[in-house]
Design a protein that fits this description.
disordered C terminus; six-stranded antiparallel beta barrel; 5 domains; 14% strand; alpha+beta; globular; Nucleotidyltransferase, domain 5
Length: 712
């Protein structure tokens, strides 16, 4: 069984460790040492321990140590968007305190192996932070999986979160005291919501612009606009005006607008990108361990596709996102969609990279086992370009798990592995399909490839998955010169063999990711509705065992629907992840049979169906036949009113007498139904109507047989 950093193991009857769970913090193969951290403890200050790596493997072999899991607390399983700026700032501040320590592998080794260790005390004096506080932060960081999100404040239920203080007559903050008794200081101004709104208005008008004035000048202009009368009266009375101070104005400027928002508003886009944007990471040229650097990029596939609901609907060319390991050339994640290169599509590829692939391949009809594509890890660095990954959203979501490295613009060679992978996929698989654009732009006289398009998004994705698996099994000569492990073990230089042998020898830089954390952080968020028919999203209905156990559909039918937070896997419509309770975790909900038409399809097909229905409504909002029917009904109504006016005026009591008899007479006069009660009467009526329709014909000569019959 392979051992990864951040994995959790349960020790049972192992002589070197207590009977509890331990997390692997790091592995030092050269020193035959593995660093473990005890997670089953209530102490706020726990030191890691070090044992022999061979002893640990022996415990695994004797089944004294088994694989286990550790459930993360609820405050970590939340989206970055739902966390407050104060909590994020506290988390980042805590991370900066311990960052030099956790990034130093020598510190971890010495801290776990030496009983007396003075480096932590020296570091505490250097940064002027209490040593116990640093120890608590390290314990929390190691306990919850060595993620920056573990440093979030764990008091989500405490205080009035997100609420402003109630305004009262008592002023807030420190009192204003004069230095001498001879001078009388001003009276502190009590801010109200109306004054805060005026703050915001003045800041937008004078300060938050490219050509905006300074904050002090904005404050002066704010006083001229809103406190003119108070300034005049106080000047005549010779007293300090009762106005907000510059300190209050500056405080609420930073309260109402973030520093980044102020920077964006007060500078041009080009100046911000050139001089004020964040520059993160650096290029790592020499990378020989799997997991040190993953590369991510997107390209447009060289083939046009059609909708699964009709080949007459051409959808254009899909976007392929891929993630590759720089060292082994292994493709570790992918995503194919109709979205252009964007964070929405990139996060799907990242989620696919961090979790196991068997379920993903099964959705597209490719049955594999875990060893066929053994990539479900978080790298140390993720290399990307200055496109969709440069924004604040990816930074906030991805950096808690891994570091982002940005290549220089117009330099595709900095991501040469993934760029080469795109060429291989297009040349070997997509250029053979109908509707391909291998010849480039369409030239006049050449057949438009869209006329030959016949493959769906699911078919193209299946082809790309098989091509990726074939690439991971293909022979690459460069790998044979990259590591001696392939030669020592007489293995073919393929990406899969390079990956597996380095993991087996513990020469890797990978980290296991918690699947619940990946679902909560990486997958695209969405809002769903709990209805009487199930959980509704985008016209599709889902459910799970918890919905049935708690009778949520019945509650929605009687009390009305409500919204729930969800995470969507856009590769399939067969399931979504829904958080049924605000403090709970995301549960997988399967597609109900009422939406079976969309089974085994992608979310793009569901979006296409909604667009198709809307287009049909727009093309024919009211049918022409209904217009004619409406005119006919109006004309019939007019004629009925005329008949009503022309009918003789009789009392209403006379009009409603003998309704049953009138109904029976109407039936006898308009139908051929004969009952036992009116058989004779009906016969007379029938004879009369028959006589009225008789036509006289010439009388012919009498026949013998007829006369004989008459005589008889």
């Amino acid at each position: 069984m392979k051992i990864f950093r951040n994995s959790v193991w349960l020790c049972l009857n192992f002589e070197l460790l207590d009977c509890c769970r331990y997390r692997v913090l790091d592995i030092f193969p050269t020193n035959d040492c593995i660093i473990l951290f005890k997670v089953d403890t209530d102490s706020v200050a726990v030191r890691p321990i070090a044992i022999s790596l061979e002893s640990f493997k022996s415990g695994l072999k004797n089944k004294e140590i088994t694989s286990s899991e550790y459930v993360l607390p609820n405050f970590m399983l939340q989206s970055e968007d739902n966390a407050s700026t104060d909590h994020i700032a506290k988390r980042d501040s805590n991370y900066e305190i311990i960052k030099p320590l956790i990034s130093d592998s020598e510190f971890l080794f010495n801290y776990a192996t030496k009983k007396r260790f003075s480096q932590l005390a020296q570091y505490s004096q250097q940064i002027r932070v209490d040593r116990k506080s640093i120890t608590r932060l390290l314990t929390k960081y190691w306990l919850y999986g060595q993620s920056i999100m573990s440093l979030l404040p764990a008091y989500s239920n405490s205080g009035g979160f997100g609420k402003d203080k109630t305004v009262s007559n008592k002023d807030l903050g420190a009192p204003v005291n004069p230095r001498t008794l001879a001078v009388e200081r001003y009276k502190k101004f009590i801010l109200t919501d109306d004054i805060k709104a005026k703050f915001k208005l003045s800041l937008k008008k004078y300060y938050l612009k490219e050509t905006g004035i300074s904050l002090v000048k904005t404050y002066e202009q704010f006083l001229r606009d809103h406190f003119e009368d108070e300034l005049r009266v106080s000047n005549l009375e010779g007293r300090p005006p009762y106005i907000p101070t510059i300190k209050q104005f500056r405080y609420w400027t930073n309260k109402l607008f973030s520093k980044d928002e102020i920077t964006l508003k007060r500078t041009s886009e080009n100046d911000y990108l050139r001089n004020k944007r964040g520059v993160l990471g650096s290029v790592i040229d020499k990378s020989f361990l799997p997991g040190t650097t993953f590369e991510i990029d997107a390209t447009v596939a060289d083939v046009h596709i059609v909708s699964e609901f009709g080949t007459q609907y051409v959808l254009g060319r899909p976007t392929i996102y891929m993630i590759a390991d720089r060292a082994s050339r292994m493709i570790v994640g992918m995503h194919v969609s109709l979205f252009h290169a964007s964070w929405r599509a990139a996060r799907q590829a990242i989620a696919n990279c961090f979790i196991e692939k068997t379920q993903y391949c099964r959705e597209f009809g490719v049955n594999i086992s875990s060893p066929d594509w053994p990539c479900f890890h978080v790298p140390r660095n993720l290399m990307c370009d200055n496109g969709e990954m440069i924004g604040l959203k990816p930074k906030d979501v991805v950096t808690p798990m891994t570091s982002l490295l940005f290549g220089p613009p117009y330099r595709p060679e900095t991501k040469g592995v993934i760029e080469r992978s795109f060429k291989i996929i297009n040349d070997d698989s997509l250029h053979e399909l109908l509707g391909n654009t291998r010849l480039g732009t369409v030239i006049r006289g050449r057949r438009d490839p869209r006329k030959d398009a016949c493959h769906t998004l699911k078919e193209v994705t299946t082809i790309i998955i098989k091509s990726v698996l074939e690439h991971n099994r293909s022979i690459l000569k460069e790998l044979g010169y990259s590591s001696s492990l392939l030669v020592e073990n007489d293995l073919t230089p393929t990406p899969a063999n390079y990956w597996k042998i380095h993991l087996a020898k513990q020469k890797q830089d990978l980290k296991l990711a918690n699947e619940d954390e990946v679902i909560a952080e990486i997958l695209p968020p969405a809002e769903v509705s709990m209805t009487r028919n199930g959980i509704e999203f985008n016209g599709l209905y889902y459910s799970c065992s918890e919905v049935l156990e708690k009778s949520l559909a019945s509650i929605a039918r009687t009390s009305g629907r409500w919204r729930l937070e969800a995470r969507i896997d856009e590769n399939t419509t067969n399931y979504i992840y829904v958080k049924l309770e605000p403090k709970g975790k995301f549960l997988r909900c399967e597609l109900l049979s009422r939406s079976r038409m969309f089974a085994n399809k992608t979310m793009i097909d569901a979006d296409f169906m909604q667009d198709w229905v809307e287009i049909k409504k727009e093309l024919n909002p009211v049918s022409i036949e209904s217009i004619d029917d409406m005119k006919q009904r109006k004309q019939s109504k007019k004629e009925a009113k005329k008949r009503l006016k022309a009918s003789p005026k009789i009392p209403f009591s006379q009009k409603r007498k003998n309704i049953r008899q009138k109904r029976k007479d109407e039936l006898l006069s308009t139908t051929n139904v004969i009952t036992s009660d009116n058989r004779c009467e009906a016969k007379v009526i029938t004879q009369q109507s028959t006589v009225a329709e008789v036509v006289a014909l010439p009388i012919g000569r009498a026949r013998k047989n007829r006369s004989s019959n008459e005589n008889d």
